[in-house]
Every structure is written in structure tokens, then in C-alpha cells.
Amino acid sequence: MLTAGDPVKNARALLRNSLPINNPALRTIQSSLEGISEQLRIPGSKALGPVARAVAKSNGTLVAERARISAAFAPDKKAAGDAALDKLAEALKAFGGVLEAKDKQGIPAAQNAALTQVTAAEEALVTGFPFTVPAKYADLPQLKGRATLEMKISLRTARQDGVKGGIMTMVADGFNAPLTAGNFVDLAAKKFYDGMEVQRADGFVVQTGDPGTPSGGYEEGGSVRTIPFEVMVRGEKAPVYEETLEDLGRPNAQPAIPFNAYGTAALARSEFDTNSGSSQIFWLLKESELTPSGANLLDGRYAVFGYIVDGAELLADMQVGDKIDYVKVTDGMQFLQAGARKAAAPVAAVAEVAAE
Predict the structure, then answer these.
(1) How far is the C-alpha of 104 from the C-alpha of 180, rounded, in Å?
(2) What span, in angstroms and rounded, lies between the C-alpha atoms of 129 and 132?
């Protein structure tokens, strides 16, 4: 019998979990540090003991396994990986100081500082790109890694505190969605989204990316560029293309990057055409109903390609007509491989995520 799980909802944790790596030592450190969030829910100072044990376990694992971790780094990333381990050791030492001072308020910042270095070390373990994208998609942009993007938002109606907009940071994950993430990063690099208005904001999603073309998508050479449906199933070596998990009779399969986090980014599409996604994207604003296995009902039906990792709270204030001033790639542009799009027949309409 399937039992409901307790899905991970933190965007950065989801990205760490979905890296194509197998390193038990770093995963042990990651799990120990991430578990601190649950301990912080304990009232008063009772959380300090479990948190201290988690930090001690992380430090002990790092000391005992450091040489083996370092030996596993990709050759071209070894310097970055070793630097991350140095900084992780420093962060854990500083974390100990926070605990000695019984500063419970300082624990989240110390936890984040340590996990930032865990992420850097885990990313240094990735050697090359883990699979080959099918040759028939060679004409489409592909992201062979991860990219970080900065998005500046302007609100037409200021919040009660006077805030009129802000910055969101998003990570596009090409390890698990190279075509969908590549399409978004390519369009961002082309400044396609700069000045774009929000076209939907209904408490369920915030959606944008409709350029006003007849197709509702990005057109080049007289045709719309469409992206095949793409989802990486957890534990598998390459994504599934063109058919949803439901269509394949696998509704309980778990995507590697699921709709768990507030601010999950996905490619919108026509409800009845799986492969009609183009330029319209949406961010999920609330948890959709879960299946008995703990999966989100959107999982496997729409192609997730990343998460808002900073500034996601701005999504709650966004309304139809608000403006995306710009989207720019701040890191990872070297992983984008631009395709040479061939002529294709226009489609009637793309990009609509069904309301839940």
C-alpha cells in the first residue's frame, strides 16, 4: 500500500537531492544539516541539543571522509570542490560558536552557510553531463548543467509596506530538464522576457511569457518553437520525452524535480497537447493536492525546469499586468548549447496550465 510521505519543500534541498551524484558521505552531511530545520520547531532551548548533535555528526563525517570526498571530485572541478570543503569546515566551526552562545536565532543563518558549501561540494562531484539528449532534439537549445538567473519585478500596486517590486533568483536545472531549461535560458539570454507583463495570477500560479503572437509562443523564422514534454523520473538515467507519466501508465512515478516547493517553475502548455509548450512559463503558488504516494497532482503532467531559490515571497504580491523588468543569466551560461531550429508548422495555441 502506498503511504503519504513528507515531501521535501525547500527548493535548494530539492536541487541538491536531484544532482546526478552518489556520495554517501556528503549526503550524510547534507541530511544532518537539513534535518536541523525540523529541530528548530521545538520550542525554547530544547532544540539546541539535537542541533548540536547534527553539527557534530556533520563535522565528524567531514573529518573522517574528507580525503575520499576530495578524490571523487571531477578533475576539472577539484579545486572548487576542495575550496568548498575548506569553507564547509569553517562554517561548521562557526556553527559551533553559535551553539555555544545558545543563539537559537542565529542557527538558520549558520545552517544556510554550511549547506551552501555542501551544495558547492556536491556540484563539484558531477563529471560531464550524465546522459545523451536524443538526436532528434539537436535543433533545440539544451542546458547541459545548471544556470542561475536574476529576475527584477515591478508591481503596479505597491504593497502596504511600500514595496513596489524586487528581485527573485531562480535556478534552471539542465541536469534533469535540459530542453525545457535550455529553452528558458536561451529566451532569457535573448531578452525575450524583458518588459513582459504577468498574464495570469490567480492564487494558484503566476504565469507569463505570451508575446502576443497568434500561437501564444516564441516564433522564429515564421514558426513557433515548441518544446517536447520532458520529465526525469527519480532514479532513472535519462528523462522521459513527449508523453506524460500518466499517459505512460506510471502515475505514481516520482519526478526528480517535483512540484513540491513554492515557486516551482514549469513550462505551460495546451491542456490537450503535451508537446505544445513554447515560451509561456508558470510558478506554482501553493501545494496542489497530493496523491497517496505524496506526489503532487501536477507532477509528471507539466515539465518542471527549476525553482525560485530567493525572493519567492514576491510571487504572492504579483498581479496581472505587473512587469518583469528583466531576466538575466548570472551564472551557468557556459552550459547552454544553442540549437539551429528548423522550420516547423505553426500551432494554433500553446501554454495554459489547467487550474486545480
Answers:
(1) 41
(2) 8
Mean residue pLDDT of the chain comes to 90
pLDDT tens digits along 40-51: 887 766 778 999
What is the tally of helices (H) and strands (E) in the chain? 7, 14
Neighbours of 63 (CB within 10 A): 11
- Residue where the block lists cell 536574476: 150
Q: Beta strands of 187-333 (E only): which ranges?
A: 196-201, 205-208, 219-220, 223-224, 230-231, 240-241, 264-267, 281-284, 303-310, 323-331
In the chain, the domains with their CATH numbers are: 21-123 (1.20.120.290), 135-337 (2.40.100.10)
Cell of 80: 572548487
Longest CA pairwise span in the chain (Å): 66
Per-residue model confidence (pLDDT) at position 163: 80
CB 175 within 8 A of CB 194: no
Closest-CA residue to 146 (of 125, 167, 170): 170
Q: How many residues does the chain have?
A: 356
The stretch 265-290 carries a mean pLDDT of 88
**Does position 349 have pLDDT exceeding 60, yes or no?**
no
| pLDDT tens track for 325-340 | 999 999 999 999 988 6
Do 59 and 65 touch, CB atoms closer than 8 A?
A: no
How many Cα atoms occupy the beta-carbon half-sphere of 235 within 13 Å? 2
| pLDDT for residue 2 is more than 50 | no
Give the residue-averaged pLDDT of 116-138: 96
Q: What are phi and psi of 55, to 5 degrees?
A: -65, -40
Q: Is the pLDDT of residue 12 over 60?
A: yes
Looking at beta carbons, which pairs linking 195-198 to residues 24 or more positions away fall under 8 Å?
195/323, 195/324, 195/325, 195/326, 196/323, 196/324, 197/320, 197/321, 197/322, 197/323, 197/324, 198/318, 198/319, 198/320, 198/321, 198/322, 198/323, 198/324
Beta-bridge partners for 208 = 198, 281
